[in-house]
Amino acid sequence: RQKDENADAQLSLSERAITACLKQRQCKWCLFACERQREDYADYDDCLSDCKNSRGRHNEAALLACNESCKFISQLMQSKYGTCPVYADMHGFSTACVVECGKDIECDGMRKCCDNGCGKICHRPLESSEFPSVPTHMSFKEKSDGGMLVEWESNMRNASQPVIYVFRWWCSSAHSVLYSVTTTAKVKLKGYPSGIPPAAKCSYMVAAITLHGSEGFSPVKTFTKKFLSPSAPVNLESKSKLHDGKVDVTVRWQPPLYTD
């Protein structure tokens, strides 16, 4: 118990909060709305529809938490964080007299719908430096237990503000997208049968998110995990018995701990 308390003390406040949230069903559903696969991420009706899947249909508290998250996301995306630059500071296409958008939600990523004096264009806000960049240089390390360690680089490693990473992955042999939420620039995936299947081509992507928003997911990267050679059988034992002048030997063992 003392060991667990010492480990918890080393975690940051954001890490402890996310860990606790993922263990609590209602709080976990608040995060679910942020991890949806919809292209129209901020569409309120689509978000509510996604909340009403087979897992949330019979859990009123979880469904309510997910619905509240949908409402928050929709309101947030209608007016994104940040300030548009003044006309005099705009250059190039930003000064074109065109109507590219009508509101923030019509602009990609964290760009806002800004007035340039004779039109409206999608432009990065003045506070762009506060946004976490898209994670890069994703790498894969296969583990001896059949799992895999995935790491990436981020400009938020030493940031003062809380940051979480949403990691998505899916395999050609599966019909669903899996995800993990972490506060460190790495994630440990389990091996077969509860995790990554052997010799399957899987795709991975990750996004960094702060209180101000996110620049979106990294480009999809694929990786095929090799077959894991089985480890040696364990608990080998033998028993011999003399019977009618003959020696009968019985050898027993348990299956290997790790194998695909």
TrEMBL record:
PROSITE patterns: WAP. Gene3D superfamilies: Elafin-like. One of its GO terms (biological process) is neuron differentiation. Pfam families: WAP. GO terms for cellular component: cell surface; extracellular region. The lineage of its organism: Eukaryota, Metazoa, Spiralia, Lophotrochozoa, Mollusca. Residues 77-126 form the WAP domain. This is WAP domain-containing protein. It comes from Arion vulgaris. Signal peptide: none annotated. It comes from the Eukaryota. One of its GO terms (molecular function) is peptidase inhibitor activity. PANTHER family: ANOSMIN, ANOSMIN-1.
